[in-house]
Design goal:
Largest sheet: 4 strands, mixed
Oligomer: single chain
InterPro entries: EF-hand-dom_pair (IPR011992), TPR-like_helical_dom_sf (IPR011990), TPR_rpt (IPR019734)
Strand order of the largest sheet: 2-14-11-12
Shape: globular
Strand content: 5-15%
Helix content: 55-70%
Pfam family, one: TPR_11
Structural class: alpha+beta
Keywords: TPR repeat
Protein name: TPR repeat-containing protein
């Protein structure tokens, strides 16, 4: 019956009932499902072929165009997107400068998950609309919005922001464009701008639950937690089953230590979406925080039924170990608490043992590498970008020539460098880079950044031989117009670069140094050899890179059955053994200065072991990992 209605609808439209196809209409047939191997679908395809032939045989090109557009729209409304796409593409061939078939084809590509092709069709629609003058003015904002959505599908959120902003400028009452702009700005870490856009969307449409949810998330990111709770609650009042609002409010309560309220939010999420394993896992964590250990264990097991992820197995094992520790209560490392020791009491046995603060800084950089996946990006790719893609000169406020580009253009370069990432992972990488690097390089908020300096900043944390990374950083500085034309860079530029490097990657030291001058900044130049001396300087350089490289090469090393005496997790990476009390700490606990209160000493001396083999040579022993039967 559905097939007959569909054919009848298309026949009617081809006979002149197609109406105005420029306006976007919502489907009234959502929920239809077509089995491609079924008889109904086969009959539809046969009938469709006949209808398309009739359309192509129309008396004029305009009538043929109208016929294919009519067929495509009915197919789209019945969720036959691939078939609709064929009709819209045929209409594009018949009228290449008409906006509507490109727009419809873009929508079809997007629904099919073909975001790149959707973007290309929307760009063609945009080009046609801009060439057509006022004729297509009513459709321009929606083209901008849909183009932004397609770009987000590719992970290009900074680029999407540009088009959402254009839509909002063309149509100031377009609340959806404002909401999407706010959400995208939140996604790249620009929280103040996100709040402004989302508040404007809510002002226009007060009952917009999604906008309330994203506004609350942005407020939470800005540490305005009480206000965020109110806004989350407003979103839930507007839409009681709003999963994102409930889930994110649960996370906010967790951050505030209000574990009972958090578990209630996750319970409500599971009532709407029973298979939400992350909500089930977070419910377990919140119950554990609330002291309800048995309920937490049940929730963890439920999460394990929903997904077999390895971290859940580790969480259950760790929970059992904590319970066993509490039950024993027998003193020693198993029954005591944890104390934070001041840095001056943490000593090293030799120069090979990493200093506590250096390790803490290097771990932060390593975390940034993991979030951005730059540790999987070969530094040679930066050199390739510099040699293959030239950038026009621009001039800063001081008249200094630069190869600067807008952030959306930088995003395209990052996409080439990180082309192995899925769109959602790439979004997270761009957000981290925007928050940590671009926020410092673009202090004035101009939206432009010095590309040569970007390459130089990224080079030390990409993959590749450490010496090669330093060479590419030097070449990136040499590539900048201020140094171009020789084999040396200005000393002042090298000093400025290293200060930026420290300000970005070692904030606890670097920010104050940006305003300091060490030695006279003259017009002299430095060679690569002299640059290396500056780079590796332990006081004013970036010597922490050696610690970072050590983490990169050893962060998968396991030390047999050895566990950290504080966190009780297996030691992975370097192990720090206290030579008097013979307990061991993992990277993280050592960097944070955590020690079990069972080992109270005036000072602690540590020796670092990179692998189990090193420890065996030194006849080192440590606390053994409990067997599964003991847990």
């Amino acid at each position: 019956m559905g097939n007959l209605k569909l054919i009848t609808s298309m026949r009617f439209l081809m006979l002149g009932g197609q109406g105005n196809w420029g306006h976007q209409r919502r489907s009234r047939k959502r929920g239809c499902f077509w089995e491609e191997s079924g008889n109904d679908y086969a009959a539809l395809v046969r009938e469709l072929g006949g209808l398309r032939s009739r359309a192509d045989g129309a008396r004029s090109r305009e009538e043929a165009f109208d016929g294919h557009m009519a067929i495509g729209r009915v197919l789209y409304d019945h969720q036959l997107f691939k078939e609709a796409l064929v009709s819209f593409k045929r209409a594009c061939e018949l009228q290449p400068v008409d906006v509507r078939p490109h727009f419809r084809a873009g929508n079809s590509f997007y629904v099919l998950g073909r975001y790149k092709e959707a973007k290309e069709e929307f760009l063609l629609a945009l080009e046609a609309a801009e060439a057509g003058g006022n004729q297509w003015g009513y459709l321009l904002p929606q083209i901008y919005v849909n183009l932004g959505i397609a770009l987000e599908g590719e992970g290009m959120v900074l680029s999407a922001c540009e088009y959402y902003r254009e839509a909002a400028i063309l149509c100031p009452t377009h609340f959806r464009a404002l909401k999407l702009l706010g959400s995208a700005l939140f996604g790249v870490g620009e929280y103040k701008a996100a709040v402004k856009a989302l508040e404007e969307a809510i002002f226009i449409k007060p009952d917009y639950a999604d906008a309330h949810c994203d506004l609350a998330s942005a407020l939470h990111a800005m540490a305005e937690d009480e206000k965020a709770i109110e806004v989350f609650q407003k979103a839930i009042d507007l839409k009681p089953g709003h999963v994102d609002a409930l889930y994110n409010l649960g996370g906010l309560y967790m951050d505030l230590g209000r574990f009972q309220r958090a578990s209630e939010m996750y319970t409500r999420v599971l009532a709407v979406w029973p298979n939400h394993w992350r909500a089930q896992l977070n419910k377990a964590v919140s119950l554990l925080g609330a002291g309800e250990t048995e309920e937490a264990k049940k929730a963890l097991k439920e999460a394990l039924k929903l997904t077999n992820r390895v971290e859940l197995h580790d969480a259950i094992s760790h929970l059992k170990q904590i319970q066993k520790k509490k039950v024993k209560g027998n003193g020693g490392a198993n029954g005591e608490g944890v104390v934070i020791v001041e840095p001056s009491k943490f000593k090293t046995v030799n120069e090979k043992t990493t200093l506590r603060q250096d390790l803490a800084n290097a771990l932060q950089i390593r975390m940034f590498q993991r979030i951005t996946r730059l540790s999987r990006c070969d530094v040679e790719l930066l050199k390739k970008e510099m040699s293959e893609h030239d950038v026009p000169l621009s001039y800063s406020g001081g008249g200094v020539p630069e190869k600067s580009i807008r952030k959306p253009n930088l995003e395209e370069i990052l996409r080439r460098l990180l082309n192995f990432l899925k769109p959602e992972t790439f979004q997270g990488a761009v957000k981290a880079i925007n928050e940590r690097i671009l926020s410092i390089l673009d202090e004035t908020g101009s939206g432009r950044v010095d590309l040569g300096m970007i390459y130089a900043i990224l080079a030390p944390i990409c993959s590749g031989n450490p010496d090669k990374r330093k060479r590419v950083a030097f070449d990136a500085l040499l590539w900048r117009p201020v140094n171009e034309g020789g084999s040396q860079i200005k000393r002042a530029d090298a000093v400025h670069y290293i200060k930026l490097l420290r300000a970005i990657y070692i904030p606890s030291h670097g920010v104050s140094e940006m305003l300091e001058v060490h030695g006279e900044e003259d017009s002299s130049t430095v060679s690569f050899k002299e640059f290396l001396v500056m780079f590796d300087d332990p006081d004013w350089g970036f010597s922490i890179m050696s610690t970072l490289v050590k983490l990169e090469s050893g962060d998968r090393n396991r030390h047999g059955n050895c566990v950290c005496s504080v966190c009780r997790y297996p030691v992975i990476g370097s192990r720090f053994k206290e030579i008097k009390s013979h307990f061991s700490l993992c990277n993280q606990c050592y960097s944070e200065g955590k020690v079990s209160s069972a080992f109270k000493q005036d000072e602690y001396k540590f020796k670092e072991y990179g692998s189990e083999a090193e420890a065996m040579k030194d006849k080192c022993t440590c606390l053994p990992l409990q067997s599964r039967n003991d847990r």
